[in-house]
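Entry type: protein chain
Record version: 2
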Amino acid sequence: MASHIVGYPRMGPKRELKFALESFWDGKSSAEDLQKVAADLRASIWKQMANAGIKYIPSNTFSYYDQVLDATATLGAVPQRYGWTGGEIGFDTYFSMARGNATVPAMEMTKWFDTNYHFIVPELGPDVNFTYSSHKAVDEYKEAKALGVDTVPVLVGPVTYLLLSKPAKGVEKTFNLLSLLPKVLAVYKEVIADLKAAGASWIQFDEPTLVLDLESHKLQAFTDAYAELAPALSGLNVLIETYFADVPAEAYKTLTSLNGVTAYGFDLVRGTKTLDLIKGGFPSGKYLFAGVVDGRNIWANDLASSLTTLQGLEGVVGKDKLVVSTSSSLLHTAVDLVNETKLDDEIKSWLAFAAQKIVEVNALAKALSGNKDEAFFSANAAAQASRKSSPRVTNEAVQKAAAALKGSDHRRATNVSARLDAQQKKLNLPILPTTTIGSFPQTVELRRVRREFKANKISEEEYVKSIKEEIHKVVQLQEELDIDVLVHGEPERNDMVEYFGEQLSGFAFTVNGWVQSYGSRCVKPPIIYGDVSRPKPMTVFWSSVAQSFTKRPMKGMLTGPVTILNWSFVRNDQPRSETTYQIALAIKDEVEDLEKAGITVIQIDEAALREGLPLRKSEQADYLDWAVHSFRITNVGVQDTTQIHTHMCYSNFNDIIHSIINMDADVITIENSRSDEKLLSVFREGVKYGAGIGPGVYDIHSPRIPPTEEIADRINKMLAVLEKNILWVNPDCGLKTRKYTEVKPALTNMVAAAKLIRNELAK
């Protein structure tokens, strides 16, 4: 019985690629240095899978930024503003598209389906000259082959690539991106020919858009694309991989009828209904790559249950045509549990990171072949039983409090217009008030202080003194810049979700459980293993310290319940909504304590609310109902004069704007600049928004410093569709990933632009 891995984490067990990328971007190391680190990581990954007995090992899943940008480079679809003149695309052009440069902004970045991973959105139009401009796929295949590992090269499928793209600036928004399919396929044929010539026997096309609710003409594009590619693919085994949800019945029919396809991969963890489709009819003689090991969470697989599922599938597809696989790429999990030295043994026994999931996949494949490792299965069963019966998982008081929430919709008693009037009387803010989203640059010195405190190398007194000094510096800077509503800069926090999770019960933490979010940005998701509660206040001390340094309003900074959920590894033994309600109650306690401490502006970030939206439309209303309700629970008890902010970033919000309004926040700050201000189109189309709103005026994920005139132009575009008395001026997101040499001039220009427009409005 064969085994397969859809994809693997790229950063390395100790974030080796992250540090190599940042060193290269800072000019401290060469391209050759970066390539050497990358090659060593790839070799390690391939050998690890080969040694574990995996038959179908992926290549070309490694990326310096993201796999969609890699596809853009392969196709030579570089926007004109980057000045690329042809030839093999190098790091300068590649990273300019991802990050921008001193003269031009980056391309739009958005979430990869319903994950916290991001991709760079291709910008296409009728005049794009697609040319084979990156030979990465074949180069990496040859690289693995030279190491004695025969791999399955992985490509983003041509239809998914186009469906994830957007019309370039200046191209009609109604432009049919699928009309570019023939041009794109011409390049794919060249890539396929190269891979065949190099000796590849399998090729994997990732077509995850097949799990979406696609119209018939989009499904037809898959039929057309693979019919066109069939002659080029002749002689190759072709796997079409889907993941993240059930495949709808019509898409399943389309997929399993595709010309020249040998195998189909399905997510059978998040797509359990797909099992019924497979059992109802699977094409004879084709391979089923059964994704039974979860690629998106860190819980150990229930091997006995998975084996039962696989044995049932054997009778449908045939023993020799069933391949055990992961449900998706392991990119979304941490790398290796071996590196976790501080997790207690009980919780550790419940977990499996990417390296352990490879072993699980192979163990299941061997068991199907009659070579079951009884000791491994027995240990797994014991761990499953331990998790179900552990007293640390359940807190009856928390469960009762969460259950009691369901009788109310938890709305503040006064409408938002009256609340804004009461808040303005208290805060006395100017028109177009300026603020930032929360974090300020995380300097080397600041990271050192936190690291030494955690390692007990400095005392708590020394730590508190250092953090107070940093807060004072950030407050002084904002006052010098004349920002209206201040933040404390979050110097005590490495990661906003991890920070809160560390202070809530029911959470566990890793030392090296890093997961890539985009580029070199890594996060370390907490593990929610049990019922959640707040033993004591979490932010009140630092917010009070910050407020003591200024007479201007100081925002209390919290992470919302849905974002904590979506940016954690969440327990899978109860509905996600139940866990979210528990977190909401904990945040509610914190909000009310901040208010008692005199904090009059409290921001409850829900950056990931849109991210968690189910991919299938039939499931979206239920999610939005409990997600929005959870947010309202957090602040239902505050006074009218306490201003509640929230923040959202890097997703498509237009389709959930009514749910955002239903959150009933007083002010929302929301990413806008990097996505070509498409958020504003909602308001142009007539949606009325009565609360305060701050669409971001510049992109913080790029080192580029926007000039005052550019920001002023953005503000004017906003004023064309939004009332001046509700508009706020702020960056797209927090500033922790930037340097002070970038932040100071950018914020200076932002404040100058706000003042410029205020003066114009006054005239």
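Comment: The longest strand covers residues 287-293.
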